[in-house]
Amino acid sequence: MRAAWWRITNTELSAQKSAVILALMLLTVALQSALSAVSQPFWYDEIITVILCRLPSMSEIWAALQNAADGNPPGFFLVARLAHKLIAEDHLGYRLPSILGLLLTVFCVYLILSKRSNRLTALVGAALLLCTSLPPYAYEARPYSLMVGCIAVAILALQRVDDSKLYSFMLAFSLAAAVSLHYYAVFAWPAFFAAELTGWISHRRFRAKVWMSLLIGVLPLFCFAGLLKQLSMYYGQNYWAQPHFKQVYSTYNALLNVDSHWGVIYAIGFTVVVIWSNFIRRPGLVALRDKNMETTLVPIEELVLALTLLWLPAIAFTAAKISHGGLTERHMLTAILGCALTLGYAIDKVHIVGRLLLFMLFLANYEASAVPTLRDVMSGSLSAQREKAEQDTTALVGPLHEPGLPIVIGPELDYLPIVYYSPPDLRKSLYVIVDPSSAVAYLDTASVDLNLLALQRYYPFQADTYDGFISNHREFLLVTGGDFDWLTARLLHDGDTLRLVSGGEIGERSVYKVSVGAVSATE
Question: How far apart are CA 117 and CA 115, in angstroms?
């Protein structure tokens, strides 16, 4: 029995078996992502996507972007509009590009690794992606997942660019597409530059077609220069996501879904393993391999590409600091590709049993994350979370609402989702107070206030300045509790009365009845 097990596990997967496993993985990912897309309500940023995509034409979307209504380039909205035409249901249609982005990423990582290692190792590297923070972006109506997919295509094209002229076109198109989906896709460009420069130096071969493709890949940034300038001018120095050096190492925890410092330890550890096994011990590498394994060495330029992508957070932080741009973990999502590729290059020498166990653990982890969604499917309550979003505000303020009494949503990030999911009879009573100067005074940022002012002309919601609203409404209900709520502090500072009338029923939100101009009596 033990001998039989040894013979089975010591034989690498055939092309047919690995193709079947990969197809099943992709089918599972597509199904779980689609179910999650249908079940999850939109959040603030996604509703911006819906608002702009519903504009009559791309020219009007361009005009909205010139007015700083969103920080993404127009290419993303073009793709989202086309996807919604294929699937009319908003939650699935607008999120379809992100689902395709995850599928594309998994598929390309498998192909990239399988060319330089055995197929099981390629499956392990592809499966790692499913244990990162990338899958949740597959059911989000934002460009991050598809952007990563385009970068993965570019890596595949660069790897095979000498095989066909088609790959040089694919390299240029995928890089240009990535930058057209999100400006920060340009953070990946130094990795391609470093890889090709390394290949030029080590092989003494200048590939003009590759350099031309890299140049074409960044051209959209010049086309969008006006939009970028307007964003910088409009949001100014008080943008909410200022870059901090700690992001260089904390990003790995967020991307790999780990705590403490395990993320950066992973990055350092696999960097050391890849350098030791592929650079220091490179001459003797073939002799160390199992006789049943392929002996293809990873070209040095591909190792440099993977390692540079792995350390993309350092590149992103430096670029954001120099350009005075904003920076969050999701802006550095492309580093996940470096994680997957370096894992593949590092474990290629591990015994097949270890790689098989790792593959099974990755898949089990991904399936475990889908249990809540599958439970909702089995119980027939797949849309329960969306229905809850529609009912929350009504349940919280409905019994307290008086005719003619406005309802102000304090946390501005909550305002768009609440308006979007509220019934029409309640929606006309919902207000948001936007006052950039007050927001800066109490929060050190006015990003959300400025964004709501820019969006107001494209979506029928009721926004007013602090002074304008207070002068017209001496009493109102205030729904508070959450991030980006400067209003409560401003009311208390001005000595207005906040009387608690409801609290804790729906999440952490509370409702106060505000009387302007009275002595504060907060309960």
Answer: 6
Distance from C-alpha of 235 to C-alpha of 233, rounded to nearest angstrom: 6
| Residue 432 φ then ψ, to 5° | -135, 135
Check if the beta carbon of residue 175 is closer than 8 Å to that of residue 217: yes
Q: How confident is the model at residue 521 (pLDDT cuts 50, 70, 90)?
A: very low
**Confidence band for 282, pLDDT divided at 50, 70 and 90:** low
DSSP characters over 296-350: PPPPHHHHHHHHHHHTHHHHHHHHHHHHT----GGGGTTHHHHHHHHHHHHHTTS
* pLDDT tens-place string over residues 31-56: 999 999 999 999 999 999 999 999 99
- Dist CA 56 CA 47 (whole Å): 16
| Among the listed residues 153, 10, 34, 44, the one whose alpha carbon sits nearest the alpha carbon of residue 448 | 44
| Three-state secondary structure string covering 148-180 | HHHHHHHHHHHHCCCCCHHHHHHHHHHHHHHHH
Pairing mode of beta strands 475-480, 510-515: antiparallel
**What's the helix, strand, coil split of the chain in %, to 5?**
70, 5, 25
Tell me if 127 sits within 8 A of 33, measured CB to CB: no
Q: Where are the domains of the chain?
A: 17-375, 385-515
The pLDDT of residue 319 is 92
Strands 497-503, 430-433: parallel, antiparallel or unpaired by DSSP?
Answer: unpaired
pTM: 0.91
Report whether 513 contacts 475 (CB < 8 A): yes
Question: At 317, phi and psi to the nearest 5?
Answer: -60, -45
More confident residue, 96 or 412: 96
User: How far, in Å, CA of 232 to CA of 66, rounded?
Assistant: 11
Supply 111's token pair.
């192909």
What are the structure tokens assigned to 501, written together?
């009338």
Nearest to 338 by CA among 371, 308, 381: 308
CA separation for the pair 213, 190 (Å, rounded): 14
Residue 251, pLDDT above cutoff 60 = yes
User: CA-to-CA distance for 77 and 54, rounded, in angstroms?
Assistant: 10
Helix (H, G, I), strand (E, B) or coil at 71: coil
Residue 42 to residue 57: CA distance in whole angstroms: 23
Q: In angstroms, how far is the first alpha carbon of the chain from the final one?
A: 72
Predicted confidence band of residue 281 (pLDDT cuts 50, 70, 90): low
